[in-house]
Amino acid sequence: MDRTFLMIKPDGVQRGLIGRIVSRLEDKGFKLVAGKLVLVTEEQAKRHYAEHEGKDFFDSLVRFITSGPVFAMVLEGDDIITLSRIVIGKTKVTEALPGTIRGDFANHTPSNLIHGSDSPESAEREIANFFSPEELVVYDKSI
Ligand code: CMP
Fold first, then answer.
1. Which of 60, 83, 85, 123 could cysteine-pair with 117, CB 3.0–4.6 Å?
2. Is position 115 annotated as part of the catalytic site?
3. How far is the CA of 142 from the centre of ligand 1 (A)?
4. The Nucleoside diphosphate kinase-like domain covers which part of the protein (predicted)?
């Protein structure tokens, strides 16, 4: 079973899309093992987007992600990193296909509603940036 870090960005929270986005992820069969509203600090945002440091959009990305509450989540499922990025859709909203979260709901690239980890290493680092190990629940497999 794999884990990933997903985060509904401030635009998704402000637009009241938390429920609909989480529903799509649950419909796909992923299990929510942690979830909370967070006001991201500047330090936390810079750690989260460390790979983009130095790019021309870095400062505006940090300003955007700290501009209001996000809904941070950890989900589990087989191949979830690849599969969740398919469900989310392409980063550029002009390339995000209908049927994906971004394709159906997003219309502007930096504010593209949701972030998803792109590798197991990123997932581990991003989960640790938002959650302590005790916050992740373990499901009883017999249920
Ligand atoms: P996300 O999946 O959160 O990962 C990095 C984010 O950077 C990405 O979604 C976009 O919101 C943002 N991003 C990527 N490319 C650009 C760009 N060219 N201009 C502005 N923001 C970008």
1. 123
2. yes
3. 40
4. 1-138
